[in-house]
Design brief:
By secondary structure, this protein is α+β, with helices and mostly antiparallel strands. It contains 5 helices and 4 strands, in the order H-H-H-H-E-E-E-H-E.
Length: about 170
Amino acid sequence: MSRWWDFLEERTRQEVDAAVLLDRRLTAVKAVWEALRPLGVGLHEAERAVHARYEALGDRVRRTPPDPLDLPSLAARAADAPGRLVAVEAIWDGDTVHDWFVLLIAVLDSPEGESRLATVLHRRDGPPPGAAAAEAGRALAEHLGVPFHFASPDVPDDLAPRRRAD
């Protein structure tokens, strides 16, 4: 258990546990961090305190299922994008909670922008996120008849070049 848990007021502890039970990690971290920041607690320590609560609450946590990567699910999400899809792109991102993961993105031209299709996290029983995202992204792009871009499928690189507009 994190040594900081004892410094939290009961109301904050209840708020944190409620967020953890619903698998709302960032909400829980924010509550801990805001409550303990006056004591000099940093974000990393707040994350550790929440991680300890996940371990303590164990099987009671209603874990959020991973985004589906099957072609029908991705095609449906692409169809819901708020514009004309011109490409599918995969990019690396990361945080202290999930380590490295890949975002599958619909690249739009009208209106210009992008729409998230899926977040591909590391799964214990599956391929690495880069390989899973590359396979799903290629299949979706082929299905939609648009290009697929993934600058660094084998090595996490959040600074890899992005797809440029044609």
